Fold this sequence. Notes:
The chain has 141 residues and is α+β, with helices and mostly antiparallel strands. It contains 5 helices and 8 strands, in the order H-H-E-E-E-E-E-E-H-E-E-H-H. It has helices at residues 4-12, 22-31, 81-86, 107-116, 118-137; strands spanning 33-37, 42-44, 52-58, 60-65, 68-74, 78-79, 93-96, 100-106. The strands form 2 sheets. A 4-stranded antiparallel sheet has the order 1-8-3-6. Strand 4 and strand 5 (68-74) form a beta hairpin. The longest helix has 20 residues, at 118-137. It is globular and about 45 Å long. Adenosine-3',5'-cyclic-monophosphate is lined by residues 44, 50, 63, 70-71, 79-83, 90-92, 94, 131, 135.
Amino acid sequence: MAGAPDTASMLATVPFFSGLDEKKRKSLVSQGKEMSYKAGDFVVREGAMGVGFYLILDGKAEVRKGDRILATLGQGQFFGEMSLIDELPRSADVVAVSSTKCWALTSWAFAGLVKTNPEIALQMLKEMVKRLRAAQSSPTS
Ligand code: CMP
């Protein structure tokens, strides 16, 4: 598949996938799709139903709720997991702030990923706890 080896080597550098052996990583790459966004493009819109999980391969994206910026995410960081986990609408907008490349998984491939790879589920939980702590300590408006 065109582009697949490139994605595989990029995923190998992402801590999120570092617990996986090469065979697993390669099979995972074939389940996802690379997507490119320009600065200002909405990758995810608050209130929409979630159909994808995204990992940033290159670039930067802001998580926004109204006019508040909740977080800026970069290479190796993920978003879009919340809606796929609780099947509720997207909790925030995610907007590319520079030219950004993501690796995207459908909701069913995401479910398979977390069910068959406990090490990835644990990495994701750790990151979600970190985000929750950051949200708790940020000033309320
Ligand atoms: P989801 O709700 O599917 O779509 C919007 C995404 O933004 C959400 O999943 C998370 O991945 C991400 N997100 C929401 N709130 C925060 C936050 N406080 N910090 C970092 N990322 C967030």
